[in-house]
Amino acid sequence: MESHPTLDEMMYDNSDEWVTAWYQWALGPLSAVLLLIGLNGIFRFDQMIYMINFGKYKPVPDRLDDITAEWCEWALRQGKTIGADITVASVNIERFKDETTGKLDGGGLCGAMLVHIKLTYTGKTTGEEPSSMVAKLSCGGDNYFPMFIRFGKWLTSPGECEEVFFRQEVMFSRKVLPIIEGYHHPKIYYTGIVDGGDRGFISKVIFNSSPRVKGITLMEDMSAWRTQRVGRAASLDDAKLCLCNAAALHAAFWGDKGDDIRAIFRYPGKAEYTLRNAPHSKIIARHRRKLVFSTNALHQKSNNIIEQYADSNLATLSTDVQMPEWFTAAPLNNGRYPVLRDPKVLEMLAVFSERFPAYNTQVAEPFLKRPVQTLLHGDFHCGNHLYGRDENEGKIVAVDFQSPGFGMVASEFIYLFATSISAHQLDSYIELSSVYHETLVKHGVTNYSCSEFKTDVRITFIEYMLTSMRVFTKLSPEYFTKMILGMSKEKGGDILGIVESGFFSKSFLAVTSMYLEDKDGFLISK
């Protein structure tokens, strides 16, 4: 078989022919890539496939105008929601809007659209037909990610891309929700997907082409239920509802129960990848080792973080936030609490730097090597749940299934704290972990004790702080802010708001609370 010269061989070839060799080496694969991109753009193979398989109606509308009465009738029949003798007479379609800002609302960074649909029927109706429903149309939207973000995601987190999100939402609704008992979610009336395959590096990173995967979910209209804005502190009662509902999902796929769906959800859940990321990325694992390999390294990194971030909005909290009782740092002139200037936080960081290298070897690294436990929701925060009102008070449903994947349940637990628990309630993890674990046991998990879970929670809190430190040591506050705003034209400001509400700074408060619980035993392996 003919072999092409490597780049190194060509660069160090003393002959004058290396340039020609380079063209021969590169032009063949490049021409093939460009030809495939061009053919797919011209012929739209994905369009051809679904037109052949489904005839008149597309499983996923191309735009909102395609969600007609006829299409809804076809889709609801496909999902066995209505019978053949019932006709959808009319539909009224309206995009969801943020109640506070008036902006069009929908699918976060993936560009999905949330649509409210009102329906009327003729024929042999039974009264069971949905008079309204919600459509989540995932087709890429207008979000724009700069090339450095696209390259970074391709390099370190291949599961963080639109085609994976869109597939997983449909597969979760089809393969997971129907077989779980006790996991509360909106009724699913129909799911459709058009899968034209993954984009390659050139298509995704260089050309920023639209994803070749599109999906839609028609679900129960629960707009009368209460919502929770991501980044806002939730009540402990709401947090308990979220955790108890998640326990049903976790128990259903615990251990080898999840083997049948591992091939579908092959990437780690978002919570797992965000907080316990070292096992899933060699690049992140290398950065983590450089951060924690010695006491001197930790001291130096901690001092650098304090110097750069102590007064930054990215590591401070608004004075509207209720702080822990032990917190004594005075507010800055801009009205924000400087987490990294509090004496107790500084004391914790000094002790942490001294003790963590040994703790890392004895406890943290073995934890990171453990196999994942179960299927996670992934983007597990209180904003991805709806809460019952009036006669439904005390009930909850989970929504947004674009980021599921396997991981440790402690990752999901801490992700909820990072995104949804107020700073002054971070020490409530003991109470909430008991509530969660009790529900996990009720759903059949008997080989994981509450003490084991609480130990995993404490280790994951520390990994959460290490993630914050790793990010802060790599980026200046100014560049980090610019990067966040540049992540998305539509959502950059919202992401910055979540970070400034404490996503990173709360990690230092949480570990400080753990330190103050038992100073002598903090990071001491028993």
Structural account:
- The chain is α+β, with helices and mostly antiparallel strands.
- It folds into 2 domains: 46-223; 251-517, no CATH class.
- It has helices spanning 7-11, 18-43, 45-54, 69-78, 147-156, 162-176, 201-206, 236-252, 270-275, 282-292, 295-309, 343-369, 409-420, 429-442, 450-474, 477-486, 492-503, 505-517; strands spanning 86-95, 113-123, 132-138, 188-195, 213-220, 316-318, 336-338, 374-376, 385-387, 396-398, 405-407.
- The strands form 4 sheets. A 5-stranded antiparallel beta sheet has the order 1-2-3-5-4, with helices on both faces. The protein has a two-stranded antiparallel sheet with strand order 6-7.
- The longest helix is centred in the C-terminal third of the chain and has 27 residues, at 343-369.
- The relative contact order is 0.11.
